[in-house]
Design brief:
This protein has 13 helices and 15 strands. α1 packs across α3 (41-50) and α8 runs parallel beside α9. The protein has 364 residues and is an alpha/beta fold. Mean pLDDT is 79; it is low at 11-94. The protein is globular and about 40 Å long. The strands form four sheets. Strands 7-8-6-10-11-12-13 form a seven-stranded parallel beta sheet, sandwiched between helices. Strands 1-3-2 form a three-stranded antiparallel beta sheet.
Length: 364
């Protein structure tokens, strides 16, 4: 294959040089052994003609994605080392939040706002496993039910920017959490700058399902739809896993993924007065609203911090789903019992209500 590819590439010298100058070269060594490789479209055309692999054209760009085995990926990487063409990494993923300031003592109106104290009279989420796919996790007194994690971006699953720790604290924190009795695992799918790739998100989802997670919480997103990410979400949902994701912080009517895929609990943010947060995206895929403005939760160095964003709303919804699972309530009850707040594009079914979910009928 290598010789044939070299021969085919020799006829593309002019186009090759133009692309190299216009696009940033990318080292494909990182992709060896991964599930997907995204390549520049003209190179993909050549490779597709030389191998039995299937090429799937993406709707949003001139690129093909190939599902490849580790050996094939290594071969392609070797070839590209000789011909260092620009290759486009799968979409970049970002975390929708704003850091405000640290605090020494948590004040938690957000939990009262959605009826968590009343729900805790029946359950604290015991018997539920939540997978938090984020920037990793750090040791914190709030996070007593942590059961381990894995990094998909190299190194350990240590959280160095506090986002994943904050999210985990809202889901399972002993004082700050909606479901402090739930166990959780942490997949580090975003790097220490808070960005990541589609491939790492997919790997994190597959890992979470294999670990037996009941709920996957993802306070992250991108405005680019991906057939591969969608497939990973469908895989999780078909396995009975509930998937929650942030609606996004663009402050306009736009779709964000994975939140906007079918079957995902897309979570918008409201303030303490149940007003739609100005930064929270609006669209017809929004399912629920939850507190997302000035939320206090666990932070680095065993501390606490205020953050805002649909990133902060998402773990509230994940936590209520954990309570529903613990009580064998139908997951749909979190939508059926939500408090309507207005425009469904802004609020979805409304504000999630933990105490009402706890009162709902058990699954038959």
């Amino acid at each position: 294959m290598l010789e044939a590819l070299e021969k085919a590439l020799s006829g593309f010298k002019d186009e090759y040089e133009g692309i190299v100058h216009s696009l940033k070269a990318f080292n494909l060594d990182h992709w060896q052994g991964q599930n997907y490789i995204i390549m520049d479209y003209w190179l993909a055309d050549i490779v597709k003609g030389l191998t039995p692999l299937k090429g799937h054209k993406l709707k949003s760009s001139k690129a093909y994605a190939f599902k490849m085995h580790a050996l094939d990926a290594k071969l392609l990487s070797t070839c590209l080392a000789r011909f260092p063409v620009a290759a486009a990494m799968a979409k970049s993923i970002f975390i929708p939040y704003t850091f405000h300031n640290k605090t020494s003592e948590p004040i938690l109106p957000n939990l009262k706002q959605i009826g968590v104290p009343q729900a805790h009279q029946q359950t604290r989420g015991e018997g539920t496993l939540v997978a938090i796919l984020d920037t990793g996790i750090t040791t914190h007194r709030e996070l007593a039910t942590y059961e381990g994690g894995k990094s998909f971006v190299g190194g350990k699953e240590t959280d160095r920017i506090g986002h994943g720790t904050h999210v985990a604290g809202t889901v399972c924190g002993q004082r700050t959490g909606v479901a402090p009795g739930a166990r959780f695992i942490a997949g580090k799918v975003l790097n220490d700058e808070g960005t990541g790739s589609e491939v790492d998100i997919i790997r994190g989802i597959e890992w979470a399902v294999k670990q037996g997670a009941n709920i996957i919480s993802m306070s992250l997103g991108s405005t680019r739809d991906s057939p591969f990410e969608r497939r990973a979400i469908e895989y999780a949902i078909n396995k009975g896993v509930q998937v929650v994701a942030a609606a996004g912080n663009d402050g306009k009517e736009v779709y964000t993924y994975p939140a906007s895929y079918e079957g995902v609990w897309s979570s918008a943010a409201v303030d303490v007065h149940n007003h739609h947060a100005s930064f929270s995206n609006r669209n017809d895929r929004v399912q629920l609203s939850a507190p997302g403005v000035n939320i206090v939760s666990a932070y680095l160095k065993n501390g606490y911090a205020y953050m805002s964003g649909t990133s902060m709303a998402t773990p509230h919804v994940a936590g209520v789903l954990a309570l529903a699972h613990s009580l064998q309530r139908p997951y749909r009850s979190i939508a059926d019992t939500a408090l309507p707040l207005g425009d469904v594009k802004e609020y979805g079914h409304g504000l999630v209500q933990a105490q009402e979910v706890a009162r709902a009928l058990r699954v038959a």
